[in-house]
Design a protein that fits this description.
The protein is 54% helix and 12% strand. It starts with a helix and ends in a 5-residue tail after the last helix. It is an alpha/beta fold and 362 residues long. An 8-stranded mixed beta sheet has the order 4-3-5-2-6-7-1-8, with helices on both faces. The chain has a domain of 233 residues: Glycerol-3-phosphate (1)-acyltransferase. It contains 13 helices and 8 strands. The C terminus is likely disordered. Helix 9 crosses helix 11.
């Protein structure tokens, strides 16, 4: 391991990265609170400003993937479709097999300039979480309680609110509803058998109601559905801790652009269409596991510098007063202060060893 890799694996570095993310996020949340004054005066200006403020938060996580860990992401897609990415509104269907698949989805958004305006369908509880949850609130993210009888009206209203959104946006959705595990897959396939639906090998049964309502509410606003399937080479099992520790992964993302006109308007027919799509996704996964590549042309979209520049800005802004405070505390000569610093460094040095034996879960 070289010196750079060693430093990236140290708990002290992780602590500083988290400090920058949390403090900058809270500062941005505070600024977002004041933008509410613009809502009754100029709603579109409020939205444009919050897209850029949100980018300052979400791009820090993308920076970890792109620049800190150096993870490669190869896009497999039709070259004609490639030139439309980032220039239209879209619904992005993502598979949910990995701990960092949401981060790869954000990376996909970033490469085409729509990270700041990216939308998701998120659990209501997340709206109360500082930094990310509050950021999403100001981005008019659609929140739900996962009880469709209660959610339908709320979700439809949230989606209708996006019809006059001033920025190009991608609406990211995990139709499976939860991350794939063998236990969940077994239960899901029991449901499929009970409903007389074809069984899937690499996916859970998609939840069709949310997707059908999304298509219904965003029709004539969204141009296409991007069917996206993510895998990692060499059976890599990426984790957020691995990214934070600077571990490099190799992702392959297959994207099919499907014009929205091809998706039925009737809710039941739309549900049937989604089930068929997941059968096709299963076949694509089967082919990938057999050959190690996806169909279509491999393209590596260029990294944009803005995620790194944004992080460097916040790092310089926040680390200087922190280090100044620490130097003043150490120079004071307090025994308690020196003992506290020694404890932090001891814990920081032992953390990677502890993590080696302790499973990490998001």
């Amino acid at each position: 391991m070289d010196i750079t890799g060693f430093l990236k694996s140290q708990f002290i570095c992780h602590l500083l990265i988290c400090y920058i993310f949390i403090v900058s996020g809270l500062i941005i949340n505070f600024i977002q609170l004041f933008t509410l004054l613009l809502w009754p005066i100029n709603k579109q200006l409020f939205r444009r400003i919050n897209c850029r403020l949100a980018y300052c938060i979400s791009s820090q996580m993308v920076m970890l993937l792109e620049w800190w860990s150096g993870t490669d992401c190869t896009l497999y897609t039709d070259p004609e479709s490639y030139h439309k990415y980032g220039k239209e509104n879209a619904i992005v269907i993502l598979n949910h097999n990995f701990e960092i698949d949401f981060l790869c989805g954000w990376n996909f958004c970033e490469r085409f300039g729509v990270l700041g305006s990216a939308k998701v369908l998120a659990k209501k509880e997340l709206s109360y979480v500082p930094v990310i949850g509050w950021m999403w609130y100001f981005l008019e993210i659609v929140f739900c309680k996962r009880k469709w009888e209660e959610d339908r009206k709320t979700v439809m209203q949230g989606l209708f609110n996006l019809r006059d959104y001033p920025e190009n946006f991608w609406f990211l959705i995990h139709c499976e509803g939860t991350r794939f595990t063998e236990q969940k897959h077994q239960i899901s396939m029991q449901v499929a058998e009970a409903k007389g639906l074809p069984k899937l090998k690499y996916h859970l049964l998609p939840r069709t109601k949310g997707f059908a309502v999304t298509v219904q509410c965003l029709r004539n606003v969204v141009s296409a559905v991007y069917d996206s399937t993510l895998n990692f080479r060499n059976n890599e099992n990426p984790t957020l801790l691995g990214v934070l520790s600077g571990k490099k992964y190799h992702a392959d993302l297959y994207v099919r652009r499907i014009p929205l006109e091809e998706i039925p308007e009737d809710e039941q027919e739309c549900s049937n269409w989604l089930h068929k799509l997941y059968q096709e996704k299963d076949a694509i996964q089967e082919e990938y596991y057999r050959t190690g590549v996806y169909p279509e042309t491999p393209i590596v979209p260029p990294r944009r510098p803005w995620t790194l520049l944004n992080w460097l800005f916040w790092a310089l802004l926040l680390l200087y007063p922190l280090f100044k405070l620490l130097i003043n505390m150490v120079s004071s000569g307090s025994s308690l202060t020196l003992a506290s610093f020694a404890f932090v460094f001891i814990v920081g040095g032992s953390r990677p060893v502890i993590q080696h034996y302790t499973p990490y879960e998001l």
